[in-house]
């Protein structure tokens, strides 16, 4: 059996070494006579796995000590609802910058709890560019400013950290965390679902500056409270132990491969291969995103018509290139090039694109 190159946007490809390790550990782990999913989350064995995953993630992302790292069940969308509950008082103003689909989702999740001010909106421009920092209308009294670091569907990402003064910057890094070095200290909260760059779906990570845990927020159950999770090492209830273990293996793999600097290098190389195939196609392939904010992680592109698009999807699959069909909100093709996708995968896609154009252009 050969594993194909998998361009899925999420859940997404995982490192083969991680899958092999998980396979080997599945029946019996570390001499304990059971698999890691069959033991108590309160056992010393699991607590060691969880603590190692946190230590490795801190090392990978250079997370300073004054940030708590929470491992939570529920996806990034759940965290989007927890943000206003934890960081803002009822009805308080919060600023959101919208640069694509996930920025809109973040607003939808926050709206029941706070007064959402859209500080800038890329939608009138078709989400082809991130609104320039100079154009943002920030409120004086916002509890936080929210951005989406990488828009997974529309294919744009910030190539800089915006300065928002003393108001905490909250960023959804679901689809680009660990893709390059990141100055955590510039953010109040960084959050991400695991299923793009960190492991399998079912666990999310929130990196929260500790002073923000002191905010009173809004009336909420304990289980929705960041501070309670932090105080109990994310074991307020049964955490998703298998996912946590898998996240740990994935983070360790990234460290072993050379860390975020190495992935920044690979991701630049991979995305350059695909963008070159698009830009060098004389208009056969089209990507409409402003070059300065083109995503390295998710590359949407279009062919001249629907027939060719459908043929591209089916022929690429036959060629061992999986999940290239675009998101329905955008159409066309989308190639996701997460950390676990090797450079050879992007090369195979670029080669296929040139060959397909030659046969159909
Ligand atoms: C995938 C994704 C989400 C949603 O994650 P869920 O786990 O489905 O809630 C949110 N934001 C971004 C940027 C994403 O890529």
For the largest sheet, list the strands in their spatial order: 2-10-9-8-5-3-4
Quick one: CATH class of the largest domain? Alpha Beta
Q: Name the CATH superfamily assignment of the largest domain.
A: Type I PLP-dependent aspartate aminotransferase-like (Major domain)
Cα shape: globular
Beta-strand percentage range: 5-15%
CATH topology call of the largest domain: Aspartate Aminotransferase, domain 2
Task: Determine the N-to-C terminus distance.
Answer: 33 Å
> What class would the helix/strand composition place it in?
alpha/beta
Ligand names: pyridoxal-5'-phosphate
Q: How many structural domains does the protein architecture include?
A: 2
In sequence order, what are the helices and strands, one letter per element?
EHHEHEHEEEEEEEHHHEHEEH
* Poorly predicted ranges: none
Number of helices: 9
GO molecular function, one term: O-phospho-L-serine:2-oxoglutarate aminotransferase activity
Subcellular location: Cytoplasm
Keywords: Amino-acid biosynthesis, Aminotransferase, Cytoplasm, Pyridoxal phosphate, Pyridoxine biosynthesis, Serine biosynthesis, Transferase
Binding site for L-glutamate: 42
